[in-house]
Every structure is written in C-alpha cells, then in structure tokens.
Amino acid sequence: MDEKALPGRLPERDRPWVMRTYAGHSSAAATNALFRRNLAKGQTGLSVAFDLPTQTGYDPDHELAAGEVGRVGVPVAHLGDMRALFDGIPLAEMNTSMTINAPAMWLLALYGTIGLEQGAELSRCAGTTQNDIIKEYLSRGTHIFPPAASLRLTADVIAYTLREMPRWNPVNICSYHLQEAGATPVQEVGFALATAVAVLDAVRDSGQVPADRMGDVVQRISFFVNAGVRFVEEIAKMRAFGALWDEITRERYGVENPKQRRFRYGVQVNSLGLTEAQPENNIQRIVLEMLGVTLSRDARARAVQLPAWNEALGLPRPWDQQWSLRMQQVLAYESDLLEYPDLFEGSHVMTALVDDIVTGARVELEKVLEMGGVVAAVETGYLKSALVASLAERRRRMEAGTDVVVGVNRFTETEPSPLTAAGAEAVEQVDPAVEAAATASVREWRAGRDAAAVDAALARLRADAATTTNLMTATLECVRAGVTTGEWAGALRQVFGEYRAPTGLSGAAGVGGDATLTAVRERVAATARELGSGRLRLLVGKPGLDGHSNGAEQIAVRARDAGFEVVYQGIRLTAGQIVAAAVEEDVDLVGLSVLSGSHLAAVPAVLDGLRAAGRSDLPVVVGGIIPASDADTLRAAGVARVFTPKDFALTGIIDELVTVIREANGLS
C-alpha cells in the first residue's frame, strides 16, 4: 500500500512555516555575519533584534545609552549602519521581521531605502515591522511618545505600506509580552484584540484609506503571540484568536472576503518561562511550546522563532541559536506533522476549551471598548493593573507549589550540568569596546553630513508632525539626508512629548494570608521601630533603558504587602535620578533591577552617585540576569546582595532585604 495514500493524509504535504531565530548584537557588521551563517544553516527568514538605544530612539552617545549599546540587539543609528546590517543579503528575496515599535516608521524607512539601493522593487519586499506600541506601555517599556501620537505613527505606516509595500506586514499586534507580564489566555486574547481594534479604527478614521480597501488593510495585519508550556491550552488559545478575529473583521469592518479575514500570526515561545536552574530542562520546554502553535493545522503559525536553552543565563551563542533552529527543522522535515489535516477538528475537549476562551476574551474586549478603547485603558492604568495582579497570582501559585516548575520549586536535586561547566563561556560576551566604537562611528557620521540638508529635513519632520500629514515622506527625506535615529526621535519628542506609563502597582492585590509573609511583616515592623522610623522605605529603581519591569513590579508589590513603603518611579531612569530620589525620599535600601546585561555599567554609576551624595552608607541590592562572575564583581564594588532568576521566592527575597537593612545599620 502506498504510504502517501493512507486514510486521513493530505494529498500534498503542508508547507513549513517561516523559520527564524531572533538575532542581533554588538555591531551591524557582526550581526550581518551572524545572519549569513544562520541563513546558510537553513533559516528561511530573518528576525532582527535591535539594541535598547535604537528601540527607544537614542544614539549610542546619549547618556541613557551608556552600557546598553549592542547588548540585547544590534545598534542602528543611521543609514550607514543599515547598509552594513544587510550587506550582501538581497532584501527582495528575504522575509525580514523587525522587532521595533516606537521608531518603527524610521527603521522601515531605512530598510526600504536600502532595498532601493540594492535595486529591489519595494512592492516585492516582504516582512514585518512589529509596530505595536500598546504592549510597550504595559510590559516591554520601549515606548517614547503618548498613545495617541504613537497610534498616528502606526496608522501612517499602514497607509504607506498599503500603497508602496503591499507584501509588507506593517503591524504585528503583539500578545507575546502580555503573557510574560501576567496575562491569562483570556486576557491575552482580549487585550490583544482590543489593540487590533484601536489600530484598525485609527487607520479607518485617519481618512488615508478608502472604506472599500479596509479588507486590504485587514489582510496585512499580523499577530505575534507567546506560546507557554501548557500547550493544549495554547492550541485552544490560537483557535479562539482566529474565531474572534474573523468575527471582528467581518462585523466591525465589513470585510467579506474570508481570505482577508484569516488570522495570520508568528510566534516566539516563552523566553521568560526558561529557567536558570537546571537550564537543560529548557530544551523540552521549548519543544512543547512549539507544539502548541504547530499541531493544529487550522491555527498553525506561519512563522516561528525559538529562544535558546540558555537565555535565562545570558546572550545565546551562534551554536545555541543553531540548536533551536534544528528543533524546528526536525519537527517540520522529519516528523509527519505536515501530512495531515487538522488533528483537533471535531474534538469535544478542544471545542469546549476554545469556547471558554472566546467567551472570556469577548468580555474583556467589551470591557475595554466600554472604557473608550485601549488608549483609555492604558492611560487609566486599568490594563497595567490587571496584568500586575495576574502576574502576582501566577507567582503566588508557583511559590506555593501549586504550579510546578521542574528544577525550581520541585525536583531540585541535580547533577552538575555539562552545558554550564564553561561558566561565562556558556553565553555570548559583548566586547565593552563595542560601545566606544559605536559612539565614535555616529559622531564621525554626523561630521560627514550636509548639515543644512539635515536641518531642513528635521524642520520638515517637525512641521508635518504638527499637522495630520502622513509622516513617512518626511521620514524618508530624513533618511536620505543622513539624520540619525536619536535626531529623528528627538524631533518628534519636541512635537509629541514623551510618555511615562502607569506602573500598575496601586491596583495590584497582595498574597493574602501567607504565613511566611506574616513573619516577614513582623520583622519589617520591628526593624522600623529599632531604627526609630515609622516604616522601612525601599526604592525600586530601573536604571538605563531596560523596560522589562515585571520583576521589579512584583518585588515592589510584595515589599508593600510586607509593610515597606515603596518608592517606584517606573522605568528608564538615569543614575542621577535614582540617587536624587534615594536621597530626597530618605530610603533605607535601594533595589536595582537590570535585565538587559548592562549591570556592570548601570550599577557602579548608582554606587558612585550615592558616594558623591554622601550616602555611601545606603545599602544597594541588584536583581537581573547576572552571570556568577559579574555578581562577584558587583559585590566587590559594594553591592550587598545579587538576586538572579533562580531566586523565585519573593517573600524570601523580601526577608533578605530586611536582613540587609539590619546589617547596614548594625542591628543584630
């Protein structure tokens, strides 16, 4: 019997998804070499990681960029950097995803200009700009401008690509970081669709797209989702996403063509679910999470990128990225997954799960719309508070052991891992000279430009921003004139202003009757009495450009529940601002959270500032993804404690903070 003719088999094998690895670090030239190696290994698309200065609209020589250049991605400060990034890579033949949000218009303008320089037709260029600003206010923290101005930029990009780059996905509605920030599947679907409605409404209301072309807009809207280890639930979530998207685009926007209403998404499986403890367990987590977005043919991802096993330890090496790529290739080419129709059609279990998520997500969506839409829900702090509360509940379940994390809160006995035996060599190291080179390069670039052309281009950008004119034309003029990333964003900051998002702490619920917390609460009160103060005061600081604030917020919530008075001003602070707040608020302890790898620059800057302010007695603790050797360096510099992802028990951390305060004040 012909194996291909077996009952249930598809007449033709389904095509594999686009396979990517999220990559970028140190410099455009080094990242270009990494791209070429990954493509040679069978990767079928590019996913560009930009560094934090680029993502937040700063040049490498800006004060806030110190220690961040080339850390979590590639620095792109101007057209020359973009040329180097894609040197020898034909953009007309490539599918490129760019994880860029607030400056998405700028990076797309750079990308398109390089494509034209290569002789490509823009209409042939395929790829995605993430360009979803809403989740930045809620989780990732790389926003620049207020929500309304940011949505205007998004709508302008969509209108431009509809005309000039019809194969481009101009926005990638991103639920990925909502899940990392604590969203349940119901919240993830509901909040992400509320964002999609806000984007489509902004395009429709801008007057740039005729009503009869809204179907063309809808079919280019893609989504970027998170897949956790509960992969059966993740399958149901994706099917629910598709059902609701079909309903919304048909009923709210009148899109009749079912092909235009198709739910199109790419996925990165859950990076923050990876563990520092027993990191070898991350391999099976990644595989299970990949199954959640590939098993169901009717809800299968069209692009997948997987993290590396060691992302909880630091920046992955090329070999680590290759391992993740090979996981995708084994599933797509060795297994029989792509040979069958949808495996879950007619399943009573799956249908019930999907219906539950659809019902709950519809309630969440309607609640946001009743508030006036997603912008209002951001500005009032509703969405952020909901996510902080959900994450607090998730952490409570893990600490209680209700949610098992193998190697972390159960089955912790382990043999030494040969994967981490090399110590610091188990992750990619970014040469500190990278930042100095980038700083020198951007200054050299500025010196070699036509200053009058730059001034004229920036003046036009500011003038157009003050009207309702589509800003893509002015942005392209800035690219050609040699404007830098920081200058482009700076000009728009002058018109739109900057935005500090709500922290969400005020509405976050505590852990209730936790007996361990009761004991810590008594220590907090006793220590305050011994020091002669009303309450212990903790400053939680996020130095530099690292916007991943989930951990800092959870520490702040638990410390507040333990009786601390918590001072938390949100993300993106200079060392000077943190020092000034510590002195003015007369705190007992400074806690710094750094997840971007810039801890060896950011933390000493705060320590130096405290010494200069006459507060060298004030204890400082640090939390983040910090290798053991770096932790030793920080302790030698004067840091009292270093916490890493393996320190998952928040109440225990708060107890240790009390100990640090007692030690610093000579209390037994």
UniProtKB/TrEMBL annotation:
Its cofactor is adenosylcob(III)alamin. GO terms for molecular function: cobalamin binding; metal ion binding; methylmalonyl-CoA mutase activity. InterPro entries: Acid_CoA_mut_C, Cbl-dep_enz_cat, Cobalamin-bd, Cobalamin-bd_sf, MeMalonylCoA_mutase_a/b_cat, MMCoA_mutase_a_cat. Transmembrane segments: none annotated. CDD domains: MM_CoA_mut_B12_BD. It holds the Pfam family MM_CoA_mutase. Keywords: Cobalamin, Cobalt, Isomerase, Metal-binding. Residues 535-664 form the B12-binding domain. Belongs to the methylmalonyl-CoA mutase family. NCBIfam families: acid_CoA_mut_C, acid_CoA_mut_N. Heterodimer of an alpha and a beta chain. This is Protein meaA. The lineage of its organism: Bacteria, Bacillati, Actinomycetota, Actinomycetes, Micromonosporales.
